Amino acid sequence: MKIFFPEKNPDSIVSSLETAMGDRALSKIVSFSQKNEQLIVTLSKLGTSTLSFDRSESADGTTYTLAKEKIALSHRPLKSDVTGKIIKVVERAGGTVEK
Q1: b/e string for 25-46 if b means 16 or more Cβ within 10 A?
Q2: How far is 29 from 26, CA to CA, in rounded Å?
């Protein structure tokens, strides 16, 4: 999975993602952060799952490519549903997703 943002500032991207989450129920279990040039998506409820995306910059913006995923056993049955909701958040924040 690849996520593209026309924005180049990683802090602004994370802020946009958090704003796009709003007060939805998903915002209580999903968080976005940065660590060592990676975007980290963490799901915390009945276990912890993490998606790590490597960051690369181009003239057009910033691309995050899924590098590693650690899915908790309790999250596996819901993976496609939660992934779909995260994609909607990314799109609301101004990004595009390529599977």
Answers
A1: eeeeebebeeeeebbbbebeee
A2: 6
With beta carbons less than 8 A apart as the criterion, state whether 3 and 90 touch: yes
Q: What is the pTM of this model?
A: 0.90
Give CA–CA dist 14/24, Å, rounded. 17
User: Residue 7 and residue 95: Cα distance in Å, rounded?
Assistant: 9
Phi and psi for 63 in degrees, rounded to 5?
A: -115, 135
Read off the pLDDT of residues 57-70 as tens digits, 9 standing for 90 and up: 999 999 999 999 99
HSE-up of residue 36 (Cα within 13 Å, Cβ side): 2
pLDDT digits (tens, 9 = 90+) for 32-42: 999 999 999 99
Cα of 17 vs its chain's centroid, Å: 8
